[in-house]
């Protein structure tokens, strides 16, 4: 019965999986950027170096905030899907109970 009253959970699950994959790639790319910046860090000195390191650190902090926001969104999407699925099962059980 749950299949008949279901919203489009197939697409919602696919979207959550795609979002999760994109978030994983973002984390990997951020890690690579940090490694590249660390390698670049030792290549020169001076005022430009200090300004660059400072700006890069600020930018990485913003990326960290962005990743945390995406992680929270991913959790909210998963929680919404789980809550919807649980509610759908409860309604299906109620309907089945009402049948004589």
UniProtKB/TrEMBL annotation:
**Stored Pfam families:** WXG100 (PF06013)
Cite the entry's keywords alphabetically: Coiled coil
Q: Which residues form a coiled coil?
A: 16-90
Q: Which InterPro entries match?
A: ESAT-6-like_sf, T7SS_ESAT-6-like
Organism classification: Bacteria, Bacillati, Bacillota, Clostridia, Lachnospirales
The name this protein goes by in its record: WXG100 family type VII secretion target
Q: Which organism is it from?
A: Bilifractor porci
């Amino acid at each position: 019965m749950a299949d008949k009253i279901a919203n489009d959970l197939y697409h919602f699950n696919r979207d959550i999986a795609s979002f999760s994959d994109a978030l994983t790639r973002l984390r990997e790319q951020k890690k690579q950027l940090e490694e590249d910046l660390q390698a670049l860090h030792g290549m020169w000195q001076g005022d430009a170096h200090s300004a660059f390191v400072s700006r890069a650190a600020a930018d990485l902090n913003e990326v960290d905030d962005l990743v945390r926001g995406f992680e929270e969104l991913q959790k909210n999407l998963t929680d919404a899907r789980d809550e919807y699925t649980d509610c759908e099962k409860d309604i299906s059980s109620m309907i089945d109970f009402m049948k004589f």
